[in-house]
Amino acid sequence: MQTSATVLALIVAVEHFYIMYLEMFKIPSPQAARVFGLPQEFMQQKRVQVMFSNQGLYNGFLAAGIVWAQFFAPANAQSSATLLFLGFVIAAAVWGAITSSKGILLKQGLPALLAFAATAAYVFQANA
Question: Closest Cα partner for 18 from 83, 79, 62?
């Protein structure tokens, strides 16, 4: 159970590092325009690039938090920290679905929700 929870959490971290990479370093490339479903002309605007870069930094923080929780948090805080950062990802996915695109809920929210559920199940099982 712990292995599957860890693997799922790390998949979420990798996904968010990838999003960070796209938002911070690949805007306004055709690749980023395709991934985000936005016209490249729109992404050419300096203010749009700055906004994406800022979002990328936050996605990097989420990913770094999950990695920290998995490998560097004290053993007695590892699961709680993982749940906290996965909860942040879920909250961001819900907000993104409300304000931007419903697809965010599936693409970012679902993996985080699965990792959250696996981690919570592990915690519940360990404490039973």
Answer: 62
